[in-house]
Amino acid sequence: AGTLYVVATPIGNLQDISARALQVLEQADLIAAEDTRHSARLLEHFALRTPMVACHDHNERSGSDGLVQRLLDGADLALISDAGTPLVSDPGFHLVRQARAAGVRVVPVPGACAAIAALSAAGLPSDRFAFEGFLPARSGARAARLQALAGETRTLIFYEAPHRVLESVMAMAEAFGAQRQAVLARELTKTFETIKDASLGELAAWIAADSNQQRGECVLLVEGLDDKAGKDVVDAESQRVLMLLAAELP
Ligand code: SAM
Asked: Which residue windows are transmembrane per the record (predicted)?
């Protein structure tokens, strides 16, 4: 059988493609791309002539069967998405899963990922973090998700669409408190790259005052709940319960 290579591509700056990624894309028999028209520009830039086939959210489940068959027939396949690492808020999960289930070798060719790039420059605790991908678009579901994350002590990483970034930061301020530290990482590796750290309250005001901050692509990072502060809250509450219990005891 052939090999399925999962290849990361740049998130803006084309120089971020790795030498290995270029070699794999050139030598593969077929490239499965999220959007063939979008990726045609990348291939053209690097003068690659490997044939492409679409592998996006709508056809991934059904299309994977055919691709796994190609792999079993001996073809080497490279999976790419529009930008960054496939499967990270991008298609590829079903193909990788089906390929592995069929006993096909799956090889990662690592490279750019917006979440990791943002974390590496944000200056927030990075020893533990939770990648949350996109929040629900509807405000009720988003508030519920944020509420469920309010006690999380790890640094939180979100992807967000530019036209929703202000609402999201405001919803985060409500759920986590306006004092919680956060970072907006926008247009990473591109001309207008901006990495702004502030409290959620300040960040919301800053974004509201400058409509440029509501353009392009962005990652939002939020510091986790302070462990010690969390304990203090719990301690005050347990103390209150203990006093109530003590009053009831004979
Ligand atoms: N697979 C990609 C990765 O590895 O990062 C993510 C794909 S997801 C559909 C697209 C989202 O990633 C954008 O909405 C944005 O949140 C984030 N993103 C992608 N490129 C970015 C960049 N250059 N700067 C900031 N965020 C970016």
From this structure: none
Nearest ligand 1 atom to the CA of 113 is 4
Unique residue bearing structure tokens 């990270």: 88
* Ligand 1 centroid to residue 237 C-alpha, Å: 40
- Per-residue pLDDT tens digits for 26-48: 999 999 999 999 999 999 999 99
Q: Output the residue whose Cα is nearest ligand 1's atom 26.
A: 218
**Cα–chain center distance at 133:** 5
ipTM of the complex in this document: 0.99
First CA to last CA distance, the chain: 76
250 pLDDT band (50/70/90 cuts)?
low
Pairing between strand 30-33 and 77-80?
A: parallel
Q: Tell which phi-psi region holds residue 216, choosing left (phi > 0), alpha (psi between -120 and 50) or beta.
A: left
